[in-house]
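Can't paste images in this forum, so I'm doing it all in text. The chain is below; anyone willing to post the predicted structure tokens underneath?
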Amino acid sequence: MQVLSDQILLNHYLSGDRNAISELIERHSRRVRDYIHMMVKDRDAAEDIFQETFIKAVRVIDEGRYADSGKFLSWVLRIAHNQVIDYFRARRQDRAVTATEAGYDVLGSLRIAEGTVEDALVGEQIARDIRALVGLLPAEQREVVMMRYFANLSFKEIAEQTDVSINTALGRMRYALINLRRMIREKNLVLS
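Text version of the structure:
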């Protein structure tokens, strides 16, 4: 059986073949689902975000706003990423998100020994401080930081999802880190 390209399946769907979109979604469902779950660490929330991602994708296609660039999966992953950001924004309005829930260790290190209650409280405060500072970064820098540290994406993947070169993604990360260090100094924060 011949495997049809994403673009051919999209063309079939737009010509009235409703099964073509199901095949396209099925083709990429595992990668999108894994990406979302890696970001949110909650199966139920990941499944909701997965459904919303493809609902939005199909809506954009139906409205004729999808411009095929030969990167359907990258486009869907970008939608998924935006849905994840919206999810964390909504949760942040309800309460602060801890470092564990966000899927990263603020200091980028593994702790060998069991932490105390005080360590946990300090860690949560550091996570809140870091998230607040990341929120103050320019949008392009904030996006790269979130994709790298919250989603653990490679710079190649970040470049693909944001439609920039790897050098641009690296440059944005460099400026983000410079800006974060400056803000930490200015606010006299202690992150340890």
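Confidence is low (pLDDT under 50) at residues 103-114. The CA atoms of residues 180 and 186 lie 10 Å apart.
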